[in-house]
């Protein structure tokens, strides 16, 4: 955890605290009332005076919707589609003056550096879920709490995840009519120009970096505690092993989950990454080192037009990883791109990756057996790290029927990041 040492909670014997080990490994592990929906917001914490909120507004065109300011902290909600980042900034130096209650709807991760540390989920019964989680031994830094203003009231609690500095705000805002949350002032003003082509609709997935041996424990925890279901990233993935990428410099295990509620096509997935590299540092190890432990490595933002969105963001100054030029010329890639109905020159100019190797697995929940697999593909592009360290970054993802993750794209990203990191040294 940045700036503060913390015992490794992944070393617990049972992945589901309080549940006998054998039962806890059962994916149906015991009826959680938790029906978590798509993330309501993702919290970012900045150390003193790092104005990254401005970049989200000016470059990524997130719209400021609401703000809360105390003498010690500022919290700013920024929105694109239904994706909301809650940017938390300290207004004073030094940890002593800040109490955990300064950051409403969150806990203070004491960041010595920028970190994305909280994912808020809307739930129906906050006290009931908090009670269940507590009875399973989960740590609840904020017990169920009611906050109200003129727009009504909400109930929230915060639970610590077993992964690094990540926490989850559990929120019931069914009784609230205001624009964001009680305690926040709406930010009036003309919406930012939307004719610029940026078409971000929602959070598609959130990828964690787990410590060695930690991805499986995290998978079990989210299944047991939040009722998440396993999501197979690729038809070739064997459930017992996970999606293992090896060779060509890649050594990584990926496991994924999706929330039980919500249509699969629109649900937000959690991807758990763990390094399997034995020799030398890679992007996952680098994250652990520079972040000071496990945490959120990137957030995938779903777009319905990745070409226009990337172009507009690049014009606004966003910087993206670009794959080596050979990516577009070798192994029939240009034909693959054309076959998908895209233009290889445009994708190459912008650095967008396209993958047709992640067709819809007909066994995944929600799969539509009538759709033709040949038309399914996805396109992705990844920003450079957005804080000063090589830690957190954003991704744009445009899914054309493909719900998984393309192996070719992950390899290309891996390579591009390695080249970037080598250049940094
Ligand atoms: O492709 C994605 O968006 C993923 O989430 C998979 C992934 C996970 C970790 C990495 O360092 C690179 C790629």
UniProtKB/TrEMBL annotation:
Gene3D superfamilies: 2,3-Dihydroxybiphenyl 1,2-Dioxygenase, domain 1
CDD domains to which the protein is assigned, alphabetical: HPPD_C_like (cd07250), HPPD_N_like (cd08342)
Cofactor(s), names only, from the UniProt record: Fe cation
Residues in VOC domain copies: 38-173, 202-350
Entry keywords, A to Z: Iron, Metal-binding, Repeat
Database matches in InterPro entries: 4OHPhenylPyrv_dOase, 4OHPhenylPyrv_dOase_C, 4OHPhenylPyrv_dOase_N, Glyas_Bleomycin-R_OHBP_Dase, Glyas_Fos-R_dOase_dom, VOC_core
Catalytic activity: 3-(4-hydroxyphenyl)pyruvate + O2 = homogentisate + CO2
GO-annotated molecular function: 4-hydroxyphenylpyruvate dioxygenase activity; metal ion binding
Family: Belongs to the 4HPPD family.
Described purpose of this protein according to its UniProt entry: Catalyzes the conversion of 4-hydroxyphenylpyruvic acid to homogentisic acid, one of the steps in tyrosine catabolism.
Protein name: 4-hydroxyphenylpyruvate dioxygenase
UniProt organism field: Grus japonensis
